[in-house]
Write a structure and sequence with these properties.
The structure is a single chain. This protein is mainly β. The chain has a single domain, classed as Sandwich (Immunoglobulin-like). Helix content is about 0%, strand content about 40%. The strands form two sheets. A four-stranded mixed β-sheet has the order 1-6-5-4, with no helix packed on it. A four-stranded antiparallel β-sheet has the order 2-3-8-7, with no helix packed on it. The radius of gyration is 18 Å and the shape is elongated.
């Protein structure tokens, strides 16, 4: 599992993400419609990426019956444990058509090392 929920507040919604590993990068994509790019906070610390923001509801519904309310409004966050070591200082984020894409180059080292000699 790629997620770490220990850092998420009980009052926050969870952000849905896609985590893709290419030969050279880890790419994280998330639909964050209704959020301005400057309202998104992204931190990369070691092998952990945390994305936080807030989705504000456009308008309150008064004197009406709500039949479905599936969209989450309010603060959201997501912490993801990365499957590979990365160069955090070279991370690049883009925001287009309501989709956040974070690209983080992988390091050359391999996190999966088999220990052969056990004494």
């Amino acid at each position: 599992m790629l997620e770490e929920d220990l850092f998420q507040s009980a009052n926050e919604g969870q952000l849905a993400v896609d985590v893709i590993e290419t030969r050279e990068n880890i790419v994280i994509r998330s639909a964050v419609a209704g959020v301005k790019p400057e309202e998104i906070d992204i931190h990369v610390t070691g092998d952990l990426v945390t994305i936080r923001g807030s989705r504000k509801q456009a308008q309150e519904v008064h004197d009406a019956t709500v039949h479905y309310q599936e969209c989450f409004w309010g603060a959201f966050s997501r912490s993801i444990i990365l499957p590979h070591s990365v160069k955090a200082e070279e991370a690049d984020a883009t925001f287009k058509d309501g989709v956040l894409e974070l690209t983080i180059p992988k390091t050359r080292g391999d996190m999966d090392v088999k220990i052969r000699d056990i004494s």
